[in-house]
Amino acid sequence: MRVFHHQAELQAALRALRPNGIGLVPTMGALHEGHLSLIRASQAHNRTTVCTIFVNPAQFDNPQDLAHYPRTLEADLALLAAVGCDLVFAPTEAEIYPAPPVTKLGFGPLEQVLESQHRPGHFAGVGLVVSKLFNMVQPDRAYFGQKDLQQCQVVQQLITDLAWGIELHRCPIIREPDGLAMSSRNRRLLPADRAAAPHLYAALRQVQSALVQQASIDQAKAGAMDYLNSFGTFNVEYLEVAETNTLQPVKILTEGREHAILVAAHLGQVRLIDNIIL
C-alpha cells in the first residue's frame, strides 16, 4: 500500500495505472466495516482502488460537529492495508482548499428536502469536495454507501450534469448485529444512547411492514413516530417516504417507481440517519 499526502504525487502514480480501471472510495475517515465493504466492491470491478480520507469542513453547518468528528488516520491506514487497498490519499485542508472557495454548487429540488432542511449548505460542500476529488483522481467508478442516500443522488446529479463519465455504485448499508447502521458517529454514542439506537432501524421496518399491510403512508409514519417517541430519547428531525431518485416525499406509492423510507434523529449529541429501500 502506498500513501500520498499531495495531489501531484497521487496523480503521477495514477497515470501509470489508469488503463486498468480505477475505483474511488471517498471517506472522511474513522473507518468501519461499512467503508471496507466499499473498498471490496471497488476491488471487484477495478485494477486499482483509491481511498481518500478527508474531513471536509465545507459540508459541516455545525462547527461543534466538525470539531468532534473522529479523526483516526493511523488506525484507518491499518484497516486499509489489511483489506488490500492500493492507494490512499489523505490530504491536508490546505491541499484541498489552498484558498477559501467561492464556487457555489446547487442541486435544485434534491437540496430542498430531508437533509438539506436541517443542514443548510451541506450538499454544496459535498458537491465541491467530490468535484475536487474526481478531478484529482480521475476514477472510472466511484463507490458511495446507501446510508447517505441523498448524498448518493446528489453525486449522481453531479456526474450527470458535469458529464464526468464516472460510473456511480450505490452500495448496501452494513449493519451491526442489532440492526444499527454502521457509522463513524456511532462511536460518540453514550452507552444508554447506543442501546436505544437500533430502535431507529426498527421504526423503519415498522413503516415498511405497515405499508405492506396496506396502511396509508401517513398512518405508517404516525405509528413509527409513536414508537420512537415512546422511548423519550429520540429527537426526530424527519421520517419520510420518498421517491428514491428525486427524494421528494410522497403521500402514495406509485407503481413502477422505487421508494425509500428515510429517518434522521438525534440521540444525545449525536445525529443518526438511516433508510430502507422499498
Brief overview, please?
The protein has 278 residues and is an alpha/beta fold. The chain is 39% helix and 20% strand.
General description of the model:
The protein has 278 residues and is an alpha/beta fold. The chain folds into 2 domains: 170 residues, HUPs (Rossmann fold, 3-Layer(aba) Sandwich); 89 residues, Pantoate-beta-alanine ligase, C-terminal domain (Pantoate--beta-alanine Ligase, Chain: A,domain 2). It contains 11 helices and 9 strands. The strands form 2 sheets. Strands 1-4-3-2-5-6 form a 6-stranded parallel sheet, with helices on both faces. Strands 7-8-9 form a 3-stranded antiparallel sheet. Helix 8 links the parallel strand 5 and strand 6. Helix 7 crosses helix 8. It is globular, with a radius of gyration of 19 Å. The mean pLDDT is 94.
